[in-house]
Amino acid sequence: MKQTQRRRIVCCLAALLCCAPVMQSCGKEESSAALTAESSGEESVQDAAETTTTGTASDSGTDTETSTTAAPQSSGQTAADGNTEYIPVDPDSPDCANAKARVEAYLNAMKIGDADTALEIMDIERTLAYMQSLYSGEESAGYSLDEMKQSLRESVEEAADSSFRYTIVGVYEVPGYREQIDEMFAELDENIEELRDSDDPDKQAMLAQYDSQMELMRDMLNFDKLYFFDCDVTAEGETEETPLIMVQRNGEWYLEMTFMPAMIGYVKKSKISSANSAAKTVYHAAQSALTDMDAEGYDITELEDTYTWQGSDFENVTKPASITAKDEKLRYLRYLISQYYSDITELQQIGIVIADSSCTAVAADCGELSTLRQGTCELFGTYPNMVTADNFNTVSTLAEALRFAEPEYDR
């Protein structure tokens, strides 16, 4: 129970600081997911800046620290997670040192249960002001906002653990974050304008509340600088990757808990979801093509096998004049699939398993995905068993992806 509380707090209190009410009524599905996705540790990859700071704290709150900082990579070299670029920075540089000190103060406060320090670094008053606008004075899940703040305080105090340790694995700038924020607001503004044009009285009644929420959102995301701290947090013998995002407002550094962690983590989850969606679309296209061929009287049992094609194999494919031999049936199959899913030509590789006269598994090679600690890997979407942010990097070839996609595959 204590471990669950600690992870919930250290990983930005996603459950408490949910902003779904804003997006569920006026945003597109992607925006809602981007703002509400739980940021529970970036999938790892590549030690881009081999910067390690291991911190511990005594029960009295005194910081005892051992630091080893390797020379950061050249400023021109970047790591990435999904489409998000990270530029490694020296955590002890004058520009970053204060942010690092606040991260350490926060993690040490979590260790000893110092709720005052932890909540101050969380900028909890600003966050609760935003939550006040979400619920318009109503209680959330049976608790008033004051009770929720008190619950936070108690959770921090109860989660105190002398075995708690942390390691700052790397510190990064995220140069594209401002563009992500601007894109998010542009999409939200567009969706809210659609509400303004609606004659639905319920939607009109929402607008005043949304305008207030948007102002608070802009205030929360109006900061001068951002650093991404890639941390390992160990508690009760378990170590988990924990991203902490620090933002500077009016010269002070705060833990950004509401929007940026979800937005940055969402990039990778979005690409994985898109890859699975591509595999699913191929699956249904193949299923429909086989059904059509069966209805036309072709013996599709002859096609039961595993096939690997390139996206280019579906370009300008035509229906054969004669469909008798197996290769002619396969060409007709590709033709029908391309009619159901024209964008299949954009995929690099496609694997399809046909068994029992139907499509049973599909894998789609959707190109490279870069991650922060492990480097660049090939991203395969799979269906009906789908890869996730937790296991996508265990699949490195199309053959492995096809096995993963099989319904009976034991993951």
Describe the structure.
The protein is an alpha+beta fold and 411 residues long. The protein folds into two domains: 2-258, no CATH class; 269-405, no CATH class. It is built from twelve helices and twelve strands. The chain has helices at residues 2-10, 20-26, 29-36, 94-112, 115-121, 124-135, 145-158, 177-196, 201-220, 260-295, 326-340, 398-405; strands at 51-57, 63-69, 79-81, 84-88, 165-173, 225-235, 238-249, 252-255, 305-310, 349-355, 358-371, 375-383. Strands 1, 2, 3, 4, 5, 6, 7 and 8 form an eight-stranded antiparallel β-sheet that branches. Strands 9-10-11-12 form a four-stranded antiparallel β-sheet. α1 (2-10) packs across α7, α6 (124-135) packs antiparallel against α9 and α8 runs antiparallel to α9. The chain is elongated, with a radius of gyration of 25 Å. Mean pLDDT is 75; it is low at 1-78 and 137-141.
How many individual helices? 12
Quantity of strands, as a count: 12
Radius of gyration, whole Å: 25 Å
- The shape, in one word, is elongated
Number of domains: 2
Low-confidence stretches: 1-78, 137-141
Listing every helix as H and every strand as E from the N terminus to the C terminus, the arrangement reads HHHEEEEHHHHEHHEEEHEHEEEH
Question: What's the average pLDDT?
Answer: 75
- For the termini, the CA-CA separation is 27 Å
Structural class designation: alpha+beta
The main β sheet shows up as: 8 strands, antiparallel
% residues in beta strands = 15-25%
Helix content: 40-55%
Concise synopsis of the structure shown:
The chain is an alpha+beta fold and 411 residues long.
